[in-house]
Design a protein that fits this description.
This protein is an alpha/beta fold. Helix content is about 40%, strand content about 15%. It has a 7-stranded parallel β-sheet, sandwiched between helices. Strand 4, helix 3 and strand 5 form a beta-alpha-beta unit. The relative contact order is 0.17.
């Protein structure tokens, strides 16, 4: 099969297995080019492990800290007629690379919100590793089936106070336009918190603890974002911001249950991920941010961010802000960076996109998410879309 990118709005509906393998290998190479993380956790569970920050976390844990890793995700396998999802190919490549270095890697494909998935993961931990030292919660999903009630909740990306209107970039047409979004209802806010808040994180930790699958001095970390005032209406003050506040509330609850410093929130940098591409205004902000940060030699991708998280905060006592959060968005939020971003935001037009933003860089990273636009790959050559994930059983493939 010849696999080409098929873009629909803010997603790519195809993925290239060889390109995804290159994407993973480049991240592995970055980690291996840096010092081994001697004091890193050695048994790590990543919930939401197949793309973006979750995938990078698993790569750093395994290839930087020599950890045994378990990854949970919900991805689509390939068939003779249709390629797999990018996350599937990422995980297949990760496991092949881990096996070559003798690293334990076990993956689970299914609904991370379900009791059945939690039970399966816990049983495997008990059987293979005994317990885990670190649990990373990096789940991004548009909906959640509550296992207690059987009700499905859907998240929305909306402001909460009033109609939001601001500049946006139409990524298909490469045009600056205006986007207007009506505020969410109270029900939509509550539903988004139900999907993207801390409830499921807490269920995972409590389930692991009750089963004796957590080490005595374990830690758990969830990822968040704050960003500049430009994005606050749609993010920090929006529905997803309410969910992130719930995540922070959950961290405090877990600290009370399991001891101070057990549960951490890491506020990460704005990057091109499958999740961020769906948020209005954010792709334009990222395009401008990349221009500014690259000019100052401050730019980081997911793998650089996660290596810094592990090296500076998870192999020693973490450095926290006044609200008790890790801030690896610190370079993004520097005053000089944000001042330049704000100025460019005022000036940018369709005609100046290429001159005063790094939309080309945004597009390249977007294509990379799905295994495209790597010069190492001949995309005109046929490739096999079926790539097994070694640790999954045949019926899961």
């Amino acid at each position: 099969m010849i696999i080409e990118p098929k873009i629909r709005g803010f997603i790519c509906t195809t993925a290239h297995p060889d390109g995804c393998a290159v994407h993973v290998q480049k991240q592995i190479d970055f980690v291996k080019s840096h010092p081994v993380l001697e004091n890193a956790p050695k048994r790590v569970l990543v919930i939401g492990a197949s793309t973006g920050y979750g995938l990078a976390s698993r790569i750093v844990a395994a290839f930087g800290g020599k950890a045994s890793t378990l990854g949970v995700f919900f991805e689509r396998a390939g068939t003779e007629k249709k390629p797999a999802s990018a996350g599937w190919y990422h995980t297949a490549a990760f496991e092949v690379a881990a096996a070559k270095e003798g690293l334990y890697a076990k993956s689970f494909n299914g609904d991370a919100f379900s009791n059945e998935m939690k039970e399966e993961v816990i049983a495997t931990i008990k059987k293979d590793l005994g317990e885990v030292d670190l649990v990373i919660y990096s789940l991004a999903s548009p909906r959640r089936l509550d296992p207690a009630t059987g009700q499905t909740y859907k998240s929305v990306l909306k402001p909460t106070k009033s109609t939001f209107t601001n500049k946006n970039i139409n990524t298909d047409k490469k045009e600056i336009d205006l986007v207007s979004i009506e505020p969410a209802t109270e029900e939509e806010i509550a539903n988004t918190v139900k999907v993207m808040g801390g409830e499921d994180w807490k269920l995972w930790i409590e389930g692991l603890a009750a089963s004796g699958a957590l080490a005595k001095d374990f830690r758990t970390i969830a990822y968040s974002y704050i960003g500049p005032q430009i994005t606050w209406a749609i993010y920090t003050d929006g529905t997803i911001g309410h969910a992130k506040l719930d995540l922070e509330k959950t961290a405090r609850q877990l600290d009370e249950q399991f001891g101070a410093g057990t549960a951490l929130i890491s506020v990460n940098k704005a990057l091109v991920t499958q999740a961020s591409s769906a948020i209005p205004v954010v792709p334009l902000y990222i395009s401008i941010l990349y221009k500014v940060m690259k000019s100052k030699n401050l730019h980081e991708g997911c793998i650089q961010q996660m290596y810094r998280l592990f090296a500076e905060h998870l192999t020693q006592k973490p450095k926290l802000d006044a609200k008790g959060r890790i801030r690896i968005d610190d370079w993004e939020m520097r005053e000089d960076v944000q001042a330049e971003v704000a100025q460019i935001w005022k000036e940018i037009t369709t005609e100046t996109i290429d001159q005063i933003s790094d939309f080309a860089g945004y597009q390249k990273e977007f294509y990379h998410l799905f295994g495209f636009d790597f010069p190492e790959i001949n995309y005109h050559r046929e490739t096999d879309p079926i790539r097994p994930i070694p640790s999954l059983s045949l019926q899961d493939q």
